[in-house]
């Protein structure tokens, strides 16, 4: 009788432990959790993504940001195949990550630029997780059927192909957050506004580089339209409230616009401070982008007017453009490297 009672108590404890398999906010697997979700986001139809390569009009982007927590001592190898990172919606449709190794993307300019701008580690680039390291903020992106996202939808995010970090995280209903712009993902950061400003430096640098190339190839100060386009692009890159993500054709995307359709202005000092805080490696170059764009516009305007043109003004505009171009190259390399 005593042996029977002991067996029943042991069985009861095992069943209780088994029922706790989805602790830690919906995570199945070992305790302590080694994968912690920071947010699962689905993009609504506010943005025009009709020109986005690889995305059909029946699909939208689902973005998962999560922390990989290294073991205290043991190294771990993460999977590098797309099938190692999947999302299953409503228990029916399973999708593999579309992010590629090296930070590139199977998709178009909009999602690819956002992934780079976020500076979150791409899932398939995780590689070796070294024991004792700090948590690694990671991003997985999926193209999903819009019809899968409905009231009461469920999701299961699964990592496989890893020796320590295999896990499934479950989400119910409102835990799948609907967003109207890529930048809404940054709400998960403690200082979301500053992080967005710092991340927008990628789009700003791309805008500066594209504007200067356009200026050079289309007549420079002698062409009125070229001057107008370049001026708007550089002023927006320096002063405007830009998204961290580009448009599907690789252009600027304004977060907010004034009545003239121009981007509302940011606090440039706050933007510089945000870059210094989150991405100090490019702090000096960011200041060039934020400060020198308006300077170039003034100098080039003097060169465009025969009454104010001079070799001195021309050289000043050239030197400012060179500084802007070099700063843009460094920033782009930082985000794409």
Please write out the topology.
Elements: H1 2-19, H2 23-26, E1 27-28, E2 35-43, E3 59-68, E4 76-77, E5 85-89, E6 93-96, H3 109-118, E7 121-122, E8 128-129, E9 136-145, E10 154-159, E11 167-172, E12 176-179, H4 192-199, H5 201-217, H6 224-239, H7 268-278, H8 283-304, H9 311-336
Parallel strand pairs: 2-12, 7-9
Antiparallel strand pairs: 1-11, 2-3, 3-9, 4-8, 5-6, 5-10, 10-11
Q: How much of the sequence is in beta strands?
A: 15-25%
Helical amount among residues, as a percent range? 25-40%
- Biggest β-sheet, characterized? 5 strands, antiparallel
Uncertain stretches of 5 or more adjacent residues: 1-31
Secondary-structure element series: HHEEEEEEHEEEEEEHHHHHH
Structural class, from helix and strand content? Answer: alpha+beta
* Tally of helical segments: 9
Number of strands: 12
Broad shape: elongated
**Would you tell me the overall average pLDDT?**
88
Oligomer: single chain
Spatial ordering of strands, largest sheet: 1-11-10-5-6
Gyration radius, in Å? 24 Å
